[in-house]
Each structure stands twice: as C-alpha cells, then as structure tokens.
Design goal:
With 74 residues, the chain is of the alpha+beta class. Helices cover 19% and strands 20% of the residues. The protein has a 4-stranded mixed sheet with strand order 1-4-2-3, covered by helices on one side.
C-alpha cells in the first residue's frame, strides 16, 4: 500500500456530517465546488474539491487532519 506508515485520516464518529456542503462552498485551492471539509489539529478548517483533496490527502493525514464532511460519493 502506497500509504503504509501514514495514519488513516480520522473521520467524524457521527454517521451524519455536521453540515451539508452547498454550491456556495468552494475549494480553498481552486474555487471549484467543495466536496470535502477537513479540520486541522491546530484549528480551522479547509474546503476541498475532489481533485485537490486527493492530491493533498497524504499531507493532510501526515498533519493529523480529520474529515468533517465528505460528499464525494453523494
């Protein structure tokens, strides 16, 4: 597995996300529609389109980010 040694990103324990992302929620990297929201351990959150979340997922895992909302399979 390419991610061997990297801890799995923590997800919310609740089955329902804290909120639903809307068309107004935009990726903080490229301004496309956001499908994932992550919380950073030092505080704050980031919104991601599917492409950029996949691109940065390993880095987010490395810093201990957790997924608040994941609507990629919606």
């Amino acid at each position: 597995d390419a991610r061997e040694g990297i801890a799995e990103m923590k997800t919310s324990i609740d089955k329902k996300p804290a909120r639903t992302l809307t068309a107004a929620d935009r990726c903080d990297r490229c301004s496309a529609r956001a499908l994932v929201e992550t919380a950073l351990p030092q505080g704050g959150s980031l919104l991601w389109c599917a492409y950029h979340f996949g691109f940065f997922e390993d880095g987010l895992n490395a810093v201990g980010a957790s997924i608040l909302v994941d609507e990629r399979r919606r």
